[in-house]
Amino acid sequence: MLKVTPLILALILVPLTTTLAHSGEQNDSSFPEPFFPEPFPDRFSAGPAFEPPFLPEPPWEALDEPRYHFGPGPRGSFAPPPRPMPIPPWSDFFPAHPPEPVFPDPRVPPPMHPSTPQPNARSQMLEQQLQHLNRRLQALETENMHLRNSLQGIQQPQPRQDNLVQLSLIEASMAALTAERDQLQDQLGALSAERDQALAAHQTLLDELNVLKTNQASAEKNLSEQNQQQQAAFSQLEAERDQLQNQMTSLQQELDQLRQSHHQQQGNLETAQATITEAQTQSEEISRLKKAVADREDEIGAMKMRFNNIESMMTGLKAASRDARDRLASMSTDYKAMQEQLAVAQKQSGDLKAMIETKDAEIAQLQNALQAKETEQAQLTAQLEASKHSQQATQELTASLQKNESELQARTESLAAANAKIQQLEQQLQQLSDLKDELKTCQGNSEALNQRIISLENENQTLKAEMEKAQQAQSKLEKMTTDSDGDGVADAMDICPDTSSGVSVNAKGCEPDTDLDGIVDRLDLCPGTPDGKQADEVGCHAEATITLEGVNFQSGSADFTAESLVVLDRVATILKQNDNLNIEVAGHTDNTGSRELNIALSATRANAVKDYLIGQGIAAERLSAYGYGPDQPVASNASAAGRAQNRRVELRRK
After folding, report:
1. How confident is the model at residue 407 (pLDDT cuts 50, 70, 90)?
2. Strand, helix or coil at 207?
3. Cβ-Cβ contacts under 8 Å for 285 (sequence gap 6 or more)
4. Does residue 250 sit in the same domain as residue 299?
5. 112 in any annotated domain
6. pLDDT value of position 217
7. Is 460 found in the same domain as 363?
């Protein structure tokens, strides 16, 4: 069926109107002027909603017979026809201000206009209107044929303006198409700029995602290496711990044997106190035990060194574990930041997708508009072929439209590439999710390592406790078999473990204190201090006279016997320890012989003692000597025993 467009209808009606107008100028000056349509308006300018009107339907009874009645006249002239039906103005077909084109969101279906009929009803209405237009076109063609037949031979040749009118219409159409093309190009430029900006933002997100992915891979690699190192170190520590446990077991067995041997030796020591032979045997056994203890001490020292090394390694592992936990916390923080950035990237990616879909819809609309323009261009091209002056402009327009099609194709390919990149980004997001799972696995391994560290610390504490027990047992064993002061009494039973070497001690390892004044006999100048008397630092009370028992002289001389020198050495030692003590050496004799000789002899012996003490390092100003002869006896001279007591040397405080 022939499709009648407003443009075709105007092209048909305008020549007919023009012809009728020229004919009316010769016969009737009141005939209306020919109608020239307005140029094509800008369809994209602002204005009310555009709805193409339908042509008014003519009275169909007028179509059954010709409108013009020809009558007789000179040269075949005819009476003026009735006033023709006016052609609707061009603004009825194309409003001066059509609405601004709105590109709908492809995700939202367009709303139905209240006055828009349903598709089936509207198609039927359009079909009826086309049938009416076709009938009217046939009537117009019939009238045109009658007019041409009647005008032949009766009308002077007039300059035809059909071509001019058609050319005007074509030029107006070309201007409208050119304006519409420019607007489409502007819209394409804006869409291209938005598309480029979206692609740039998308590329920036891809770069950031790649950087985050690289950082996460590096952090996971470092964490994996640290976990491997810690596992290797833990394995080595476990092996060393097992070895130490075996050694501790062996040492414990040896310690039990030593304890049994010590109990046996303790019984032997008690038996050895009764006989010298058993004492010598015990001495040899003690020497052997000392050697065994020394060997065990060396082993314990080595174990301590290894234990210290293990503690150092444990400290290093704890520090490494703390560093790993800190790094894990830092990685968790970084991972949260990466998740936030990923959420932002996903949101931006969704926005970009929506924007790209919107741009695709806009481009599709532009393509549809271009196709419509191409259709109109094809129609105009067919009409412009008759006009030589507009042929070049048509070619340029065709080239421009082809260029626009090429650009649209390139934009479409770019959008396809952007979609491919978006898919790649989604794959990378999936990989990031996998990395997140791996990170959780690493966190679980780290927790297992922490539990292992705690277990090793507990075992270490157990080893320390066992080591302390072993050391206590070793110390006890050493005390049972060691005599630190060399007094012949083991340290375990020695109440006085710091006894000077070479001095005699009792069964408790202490020097004897006969008078129990707190000063041992070796340092006591008054070993017979009575009970209840307060002794000073030399073991004497305030009124006591210090008698040097054991200091004897050769008969009738001032020469000491060998035993006397031992006593004098002990006195010199005591005086050295009490440098604030000043002494008078008093010499005494019995009454045998003259008094003068005894006084002189006692003075000589007192000076001999003084000189010996000075020779042992006692300051001379601290000492004085005096001979009392027989004047101060302490016993009766009637007996030999009494006279022996009276022959004496005494020390008196000055």
Report:
1. confident
2. helix
3. 265, 268
4. yes
5. no
6. 80
7. yes
How far apart (Å, rounded) are the C-alpha atoms in residues 248 and 349?
66
β-bridge pairing 583-588 and 623-629? parallel
* Maximum average pLDDT range among 139-148, 548-557, 574-583: 574-583
Supply the CATH number for residue 620's domain: 3.30.1330.60
Quickly state the pLDDT bin for 55 (edges 50, 70, 90): very low
Question: Is 450 found in the same domain as 306?
Answer: yes
How is the beta sheet containing 583-588 ordered, strand by strand? 546-547, 648-653, 583-588, 623-629
Whether 418 shows a pLDDT value over 50: the answer reads yes
Q: Find where tokens 């078999």 sit.
A: 481
**3-class DSSP state of 564:** helix
Question: How far is C-alpha 644 from the geometric centre of its chain's CA atoms?
Answer: 100
**Domains: count for the chain:** 3
User: Do 324 and 432 share a domain, yes or no?
Assistant: yes
Position 603 scores a pLDDT of: 93
Q: Which residues form the domain of 130? A: 6-101+121-154
Do 444 and 353 belong to one domain? yes
Cα 266 to Cα 259: distance, rounded to the nearest angstrom: 10
Report residue 633 CA to chain centroid gap.
101
Assess if residue 521 is contained within a domain: no
Could you give the C-alpha distances from 480 to 125, 290, 332, in angstroms and in order? 128, 10, 61
- Do 147 and 220 belong to one domain? no
Asked if 37 contacts 101 with a C-beta cutoff of 8 angstroms, the reply is no
Q: Going by C-beta distance under 8 Å and a sequence separation of 6 or more, which residues neighbour residue 3?
A: 130
How far apart (Å, rounded) are the C-alpha atoms in residues 318 and 556? 87
Residue 613 counted as domain residue: yes
Cβ atoms 401, 373 nearer than 8 A: yes
Query: For residue 412, what are its two tokens?
Result: 């479409």
CA distance 252 to 243: 14
What would the mean pLDDT of 385-389 be, rounded to a whole number? 56
Is there a contact between 382 and 465 (Cβ–Cβ < 8 Å)? Answer: no
3-state secondary structure string, 277-315?
A: HHHHHHHHHHHHHHHHHHHHHHHHHHHHHHHHHHHHHHH
Mean pLDDT of the chain: 68
For the entire predicted model, the pTM comes to: 0.29
- Give the CA distances from residue 19 to residues 82, 135, 147, in Å, rounded to whole numbers and listed in that order: 15, 22, 9
Percent of the chain with pLDDT over 70: 41
C-alpha to C-alpha distance for 604 and 618, rounded to whole angstroms: 19
When pLDDT is averaged across residues 548-560 and rounded to a whole number, the result is 76
Compute the CA torsion angle 18, 19, 21, 25 (nearest 10 deg): 140
**Shared-domain flag, residues 338 and 214:** yes
Task: Name the token pair of 222.
Answer: 């470092």
Helix (H) or strand (E) holding 649, with range, is strand 648-653
Please check whether residues 150 and 199 belong to one and the same domain. Answer: no
Where among 454, 481, 508 does a domain terminate? 481
Number of CB atoms found within 10 A of residue 448's CB: 12
* pLDDT top residue among 543 and 612: 612
Is 512 inside a domain boundary? no
Q: Dihedral angle at the C-alpha atoms of 235, 240, 241, 246, nearest 10 degrees? A: 130
* Nearest of 189, 169, 188 to residue 376 by alpha carbon: 169
Q: Which residue among 429, 448, 481 closes a domain? A: 481
Cβ atoms of 608 and 651 closer than 8 Å: no
Task: Summarize pLDDT for 77-111 with one digit per residue, the tens.
Answer: 444 445 445 555 545 544 555 555 444 455 544 45
